[in-house]
Amino acid sequence: MASLELLGFGSTGWGALLILATLMTLAVTATALAIGAVLGALVAFAKLSGNPFLATLGNVYTTVFRGVPELLIIYLIYFGGSSAITSIGTAMGYEGFLGLPSFAAGALAVGIISGAYQAEVFRGAFLAISKGELEAASAIGMHRGMRLRRIIMPQVLRFAIPGLGNVWQLSLKDSALISVTGLAELMRTSQVAAGSTRQYFLFFIAGGCLYLILTSLSDRIFNGAERRANRSMPASAMGQA
């Protein structure tokens, strides 16, 4: 009964805080995925551009941020960013330490990591588009902007859905590492609750269950989006998939 009271929503319960922390985890992950989508699209374009310099930059980005441990990148962004902001503030006459907000640092760090994986997802999705469709679009006089809007982007998004689902799950789990910055996301709140009550097993199991709920719901959403995209995909494109 005491354990149930600790997980309740009353004055002594941690349930409401765990729910709020779960929403914070979703917010960080969604922001990181959006940042990663922008970076990933730019890097994919660089790698597909045919320009050796841009392709090299894209390869360096994906190699570094897929090869370096995620926790190290979070440390570099959070502590390195705070040091840089403090140095700028000192140069402008401000005295004292200026810390980078935990949410911004965490979302940016996970977004940079996510971008390295999304770049490969988008690149693979573009290469999956039938070359015949692009040639036919050029033959009938479609200009580049129209080809991008009517052919390339819709099909890249369709082909990318499974990969983006995997990247979302990766980012969702990486968000637990942001707890080192002090942000009250799900992992951090579970740690604080466990330490405050000495009920380590209870709160870490509760945190794990909430993560499993998030990943299970995410799977259903992305699987549904993939089925819907495949239903609306032309038969020729289905064959290429």
TrEMBL record:
- Key words of the record: Cell inner membrane, Cell membrane, Membrane, Transmembrane, Transmembrane helix, Transport
- Predominantly, its location class is membrane
Q: What GO molecular function annotation could you give as one example from this UniProt entry? A: transmembrane transporter activity
* Cellular-component GO terms for this entry: ATP-binding cassette (ABC) transporter complex
Matching entries from CDD domains are given as: TM_PBP2
Listed InterPro entries? AA_ABC_transptr_permease_3TM, ABC_transp_permease_HisMQ, MetI-like, MetI-like_sf
Q: Which Gene3D superfamilies match?
A: MetI-like (1.10.3720.10)
* PROSITE patterns hit by this protein: ABC_TM1 (PS50928)
Q: How does it sit in the membrane?
A: Multi-pass membrane protein
Ranges of residues in domain ABC transmembrane type-1:
22-222
Q: What's a Pfam family in this record?
A: BPD_transp_1
Provide the protein's localization. Answer: Cell inner membrane; Cell membrane
Protein family: Belongs to the binding-protein-dependent transport system permease family. HisMQ subfamily.
Q: What is this protein called?
A: ABC transporter permease subunit
